[in-house]
Amino acid sequence: MSHPMRPNPSNRRQFIRGAAATVGAMSVAPHLIAQSGPVRVGYAIARTGPWTGGAQVSQEPNYLLWAEQQNAAGGLDIKGVKRPIELISSDDRSEVETVVRTYEKLMGSDKVDLVLPPWGSNANFAVAPLANRFGYPFLAPTALSRRLVEMKLPYFFLLLQQPKPMCDAIVDMLKANGAKTAACIYVDDLFGLENYAALKVALAGSGIQLVQDTSYPGGVKDLSPTLRSIKDKNPDAFIGFTYPPDTILASRQAKEVGFNPKFFYASVGTAFQLYRNVMTSAGAEGVLGMGSWNAKTSPGAKAYFDAHTKKFGGKEPDRWASGHCWAGLEILTQGVKQVGLDRKALRDYIANTTHKTIIGDVKFTGSENTATPGTVGQWQNGEMEVVWPQKVATAKLNPNKPAWK
Q1: Which pLDDT score is estimated for 110?
Q2: Domain 10-15+25-162+298-369, architecture per CATH
Q3: Which regions of the chain carry the CATH code 3.40.50.2300?
């Protein structure tokens, strides 16, 4: 990798001799040279394996766009000095072991200046203790885990709304719109189990009865038996704590078995452009999911949406974690502008500041973003609108999902 702002060897020797004449080469020159080179930003991300669908929509495109924009403006502003960003990245192959090994190397031996997080709750859960051990702030846009909050790791920050506020928003919306019964499916891993547990708590005392709850293994290929069983119980609402392939599978198979409740909610991937596109034949209209922003949310959100779509040839950011990912990059950018690359000072800045971002204010209580409310999105006329709670809504909820096409 080339380093365009590092002095060439002959210039470097002259620089060191000049410094030695005044205050000593060994202590000053290497420090000053380091200040003129690229900012080395390391990460591991899924480019192959089952995490790829989410990682290549919600995270890596944003990392690439951010680095390109910063470098086009002269580099990342480090307390008034602009330095180019050098991304040091690799494929984690959707393997927790590879994630851990890669970040240990990036932080432990490579000693990069900054790190960007991997994709998904499982990968972030594995790497969070390393962030704390090596003292690197992590602003994680795709980690949903109450356990991560409870671990109280001072260098780890979760940008997404966590299971409790998300499930509280779902149940509040259902209750306000007359739902009496619901059914739930959930993937059998950290993400699914925590969200299912939060849903059970949210439903307690709501007057909404959970008529069926069924877990399924990651990589499931057929959900139709479960969907037929749920259809027989005729619930008002279906809630799926699902990953992108399962979100699409559950939606397609719900159509196939003729299951069309008033409220059909699926999780990760529902807010993707891919979902809208692949569901053209079945119809995405009225489907609910994890969505928290769109181009109407703020002027900054519109600018980001347009820049992303242009850079990636019409590929849109998703209306959930992509926005949180960009918000994290905004926070990181502002942080190094204010306090530089001192990671302890950067951590303190992140922890103690109310951050203005494209998704609104972000403020951390411990590791958790407590300023952004739990939200529900809904596909309406080709756009994933924020429909709940009403104070952040970009459109009004349609409380009766149209029939699948």
Answers
A1: 98
A2: 3-Layer(aba) Sandwich (3.40)
A3: 10-15+25-162+298-369, 163-296+375-392
Is the Cβ–Cβ distance between 109 and 85 less than 8 Å? Answer: no
CA separation for the pair 405, 402 (Å, rounded): 9
Q: Is the pLDDT of residue 334 over 80?
A: yes
Question: Is residue 147 within a helix (H) or strand (E), and if so which, with residue range?
Answer: helix 146-150
What does the pLDDT look like over 343-364, one tens digit per residue? 999 999 999 999 999 999 999 9
Predicted confidence (pLDDT) per residue in 249-273, tens digit: 999 999 999 999 999 999 999 999 9
Residue 289: both structure tokens together: 């999911």
3-class secondary structure for 286-353? Answer: CCEECCCCCCCCCHHHHHHHHHHHHHCCCCCCCCCHHHHHHHHHHHHHHHHHHHCCCHHHHHHHHHHC
The secondary structure of 8-64 as a DSSP string is: PHHHHHHHHHHHHTTT-HHHHHHHHHHHHS-EEEEEEE-SSSTTHHHHHHHTHHHHH
Cβ 125 vs Cβ 53: under 8 Å: no
Cis peptide before 389 (omega within 30 of 0): yes
- Please give the CATH architecture assigned to the domain spanning 163-296+375-392: 3-Layer(aba) Sandwich (3.40)
The pTM of the whole model exceeds 0.90: no
